[in-house]
Amino acid sequence: WWNWPHKVDMASYAPADALVYIELNSLEDVSNAIKQGEVFKAISSLTVVNSNPPSRWSIWAARAGLAPAQSVVFARAQMALVVVDIDRQTNGDALRVKPEAALIVETQTAKWRMKSVALDSVKQLAQFAYGASECTENEYIECKESRGSRKILAAVEGSTVIIGNSDKAVQSC
Fold this sequence. Notes:
By secondary structure, this protein is α+β, with helices and mostly antiparallel strands. It has helices at residues 27-36, 38-46, 56-64, 69-76, 111-130, 167-172; strands spanning 20-24, 78-91, 94-106, 133-137, 141-145, 151-157, 160-164. Strand 5 (141-145) and strand 6 (151-157) form a beta hairpin. Helix 3 (56-64) crosses helix 4 (69-76). The longest helix has 20 residues, at 111-130. The protein is globular.
């Protein structure tokens, strides 16, 4: 029972001056809601997507920490999306607007167990978003677009992973 996850106040991770704050307390519930939608049902019949929900036993085992790390993190995670600022730049008559955002994931899983899963997921996200990307690991991970200035940063602090598109977004959370 000492390992069973408890709900965390995700707002305590977000800065008080955040412009936008959206909280998701159960990825499982969001996933199930999507899977029940008509669009997902139509798409899953055309592809090889498994639309069957996992068994209650597998969900319980993941929440208890008795499953692979990726399943445990998915079953326990709470998330918050925070927009901390909006970067505006003008170039002649054009206005370029870039929100500085961070995704805060409270994994409720020990750092030694979830860190590699989190960092691998960030690398996969960068690969998906940028195609070829260059990732470096120090006290945090930074993945940069090969031919541009976009980047994804991730920091792991305790059982929390903070993923953002700017230093400011990650540091403020």
